[in-house]
From TrEMBL:
Listed transmembrane segments: 228-249
Protein's name in the database: non-specific serine/threonine protein kinase
Membrane topology: Single-pass type I membrane protein
A single MF term (Gene Ontology): protein serine/threonine kinase activity
GO CC terms: membrane
Origin species: Triticum aestivum
Amino acid sequence: MLEEELPMCFEWTISSLHINCGDKEAIVNGVKYEGDTTPKGASMLYVSPDNWAFSSTGNFMDDNINDDNYIVSSTSKLTMPNSKLYARARLSPLSLTYYGLCMHNGSYTVKLHFAEIIFTNDSTYYSLGKRKFNVFIQGRMVLEDFDIEKSAGGAGKLVIKTFITYVTNHTLEIQFYWAGRGTTGIPKRGFYGPLISAISVTPNFQIPLAVEPPRSGSGTNTSRTSKALLIGAPIIAIFTALVVGIYWIKRRRKNLVNQDLRALDLQIGSFTLRQIKAATRNFDPANKIGEGGFGSVYKGSLSDGTIIAVKQLSSKSKQGNREFVNEIGMISALQHPNLVRLYGCCTEGNQLLLVYEYMENNCLARALFVEEYRLALDWPTRRKICLGIARGLAYLHEESAIRIVHRDIKASNILLDKDLDAKISDFGLAKLNEDGHTHISTKVAGTIGYMAPEYAMRGYLTDKADVYSFGVVALEIVSGKSNTNYRPKEDFVYLLDWACVLHERGTLLELVDPDLGSNYSTEEALLMLNVALLCTNAAPTLRPKMSNAVSLLEGHTPLQPFLSELSLAANSLSSSGLRRNFWENPNESQSITAQASCNNTSDSSSLDVDGSLRHFAT
């Protein structure tokens, strides 16, 4: 969030910017491109004396962090015009952002010069690589899944992308961001991510007279002023760079959140506290739409009319800090129609604020269980919601570049947009599930009634824990009843217990929400209920993968072969007994919460007493 931490600009400002990314200074068509040869790139900031800067975030997923290259050279001879701009380029494993500092406000033309100089057009292994990344200018995405080679018509060919943008606060921001797509190990690990050859920024307005060259015959005073300007400009530029650097360091030291958060703060969009206060009317209580264990959630409106939900975490809680870092780190790398979208964050002062897309219909728990807000969800809508959750989890577990176990799937963490499409939210407790690890051993954090037995009792965490939680939510969707609050008889602790009994009796359809009357498909209802029971099997190995659950719900995979596993579950150790034993005798290391009312950004009330933030399985 460099642009928010800059001091006020001096009167002397710039109106154009030309950078030869990853290479030395070059003159092209009479224009000087500033050199950019700083070799480092992992979570670092470089401020040039020429009023520009760049920051790079992340480490490559390779075997030797000391050999990472953030500047790469062409693997073959280049024949395009002005090849000196493309022979070398700057590379980043995650986020690379260039800043124009102290610029005149106004309209500019931005030209981004690209050439794929690592991959090749031949039949060698180097030709198999695929690079895709996103490009943002002033926080707005201008290129999504941009493939240099495809856009240029081959490797080793140049392509220039031109955009019009506006500078309103004397700062221009151009960000290149890897969202996890493309190859990661070709020609070897450490050559993926955004690649940029050169940047050119020119004004679409007349340069103010104050910095124009003096006119002839303007007299001695003008000549003296011109000389003073020529002498003073470089000094001011250097002084500006020093002030920016010192100010940046001081701000980082004063920041109340930990080092992991500071390393992540350039990966997503940034908001000032002033912007958020204006959007929420200074956190007006009338705009509060939810509250949980780590703070409040407010509805807001940005100056462009975008409706947002602001999740305000408590700055006094170390747990809140860890969740804040974790949520940004997880969700900023994920993009799927059934995952809530994170617009950005704010860490100004002691504030920890997450800015999400606003969900018009709040969350599934409120739509199903809260009488005054309950929605009349018809059967097709319930089926759509259930499928949306399943698809979102299948993406997290099996399709995304980073495999994630959510750990806290529950009705209050499923948000509903204006079309009642389901969006999984609240990644504060999520864990990375690394390849090669069969499970993660971790202290328990989650919500009563939704946690799988093996996780709740032993801290044994796999993606099958999310499958279990999904099964519980699916039962709630069909029945319209809360798993933890519905007890048809004293002997049954949970809705799931009653569902198992009805399954044994062969009367599973008794579980369907009476509000639906006869306006539902009995075949689809039975399918959804049986899939839910499969997912809540006491044995994790007998639960289906989420991709299999999606296929079952869509009717692409027959249910019959799976039904024997329901019988195995019935003959196995009683899951009801497991749950009752656990909740009546929790051990001290477990950190759990009762089901909480939801809010529009899925503010979690779940606590994790483990003192360390584990990004990876241990």
